[in-house]
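Quick illustration, no need to memorize.
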Amino acid sequence: MLRKSYLIAAGLLVTATWSLEARAQAAKEPMTFFVSSVGSGKGADLGGLAGADAICQKLATDAGAGSLTWHAYLSTSSYKGGTIVNARDRIGNGPWHNAKGELIAHNIDELHGKNSIVSKQTALTEKGAVVNGRGDTPNQHDILTGSRPDGTALLGATDSTCSNWTSGADDGSAMLGHHDRTGLSLDPPMLSWNSAHPSAGCSQPKLVQTGGAGQLYCFAVR
């Protein structure tokens, strides 16, 4: 009986130790990545990069993570005289964790690598909620990025950033990513979290029509 009691006590001690270690580990992994639960409400008119960053910062602050500096994962292009900025250069080098403390990527190269784990299950909002994907109603898997798969800006004479995130008009276009890594086919672009296809326009109705809601990827600069 004494030995049995000892084993039970030892087991409880181990369980308690694991629990403490788990809590300690979680405390080391604050939220440093999320999909914005809302966009600007004006389609792809985010007020430029500064306005997009302000959206991320406010949402992070409301979620208790405002002590960190937050940037939207967006590129800008040279379209109509704009300045090229690469989304990957705006977010530091990681690591990043979602609202549940789950690892998204150790560093910038892993984030953009072929084994990136951004998915519907991991790309949560700042509130820890799952974002609707393909097959849900409404589908909201299109996330604004204006980027190529490696996180750099698209080049050429075609608008890929809705006039560098200042246009909410029906015309124009922005490159989108699929946070759920699914699409109309199994072609690599359809499975891309940051460079799946262009939007049908820049207004909120056009973004909804395409399959999104004007949401952003937000990263703490690390």
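Residues 1-18, 20-24 have pLDDT under 50 and may be disordered.
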